[in-house]
Amino acid sequence: MKSLGFVRVETLNRIQVRIHGDSMWPTLKDGDCVEAIKGPIPVVGDIVIAHHPMKKMTVIKRVKRIQSDGLFLEGDNPDPIGSEDSHNFGLVPTSSIIAIIDD
Amino acid sequence: MSNEKQVIIDAHAHCDGPCGVYDPASARIAGEAVQSMTKKMLELAASDADCNSAAYINTMSRYAAIKEEEAQKCKNELLVLWTDFFKPQHLESIPDLHNTFWQAAKLCSACKVEVSSDHAQELMDAIENIHNMFWNVKGRSEISWIRAS
Question: Does the pLDDT of residue A5 top 50, yes or no?
């Protein structure tokens, strides 16, 4: 599996995100590049970049619910097995959120 | 230093569970077995063998049982590709995807209830078509269609 992570220092606010995979289809497609902003507190409906809770991997998903113990993240792909997300790996702690897609 | 410089990260938007290993070869092998058993049944029926002998009945029964089993296996393998590997986004480039799998699955059923060399060949043609669809989606169209028999 490909190594993931920041290419340059993390202290900058705006980051370019390259998408790998189709779990955010049709909103974002494999190979798309989008801009994200570090810092804002996510709200329901935001697309966020987060650390995978179980793997050394950065994921991109949409915030479906916000609970006291974490965020429920979900892919946009309508296929029930079209996204590995909180249905599989559970809630993601707020501290694991890296950035929010700038729409 | 500017705070607006951009960094690049790779974000995974993964589908699928932990395995993710798919290959239409599994369906192709089962389909070939169906075609082989169909051919053997037709050849045996056309032979001079005593169709009332225990040996004939046993052999023909075994051919039929294997044909039945492999046709069901082929259908299962096709259904896994259809429902697990292929995703809604693939309909953009393969608009007849659903009909292709539907017809292929029906051919599996036809090969079970019949002894038809025509339908056995049509099943293999359908699997070859799915082989090409699959590897094109994977971006590996150079994977050529092969047969074991």
Answer: no
Interface residue ranges in chain A relative to chain B, Cβ cutoff 8 Å: 2, 4-10, 12-26, 28-30, 35, 49, 52, 57-61, 75, 77-79, 81-84, 88, 98
Task: For domain B25-137, give the fold.
Answer: Four Helix Bundle (Hemerythrin (Met), subunit A) (1.20.120)
Q: Residue B8 has what pLDDT?
A: 83
Whether A43 is covered by a domain: the verdict is yes
Structural domain boundaries in chain B:
25-137
ipTM: 0.76
Residue A21 burial (CB count, 10 A): 23
- Evaluate whether B87 touches B13 at the Cβ level (below 8 Å): no
Helix (H, G, I), strand (E, B) or coil at A52: coil
Considering only CB atoms, which chain B residues are within 8 Å of A48? none
Contact B7 A6 (CB under 8 A): yes
CATH code of A22's domain:
2.10.109.10
Do the domain assignments include residue A3? no
Q: What gap in Å lies between CA A72 and CA A55, rounded to an integer? A: 17
**For chain A, what is the mean pLDDT?**
89
Domain around A87: 14-101
Residue B3 has pLDDT above 90, yes or no: no
What pLDDT is recorded for position A16?
94
User: Looking at residue B138, what DSSP letter applies?
Assistant: T
Q: State the total domains in chain A.
A: 1
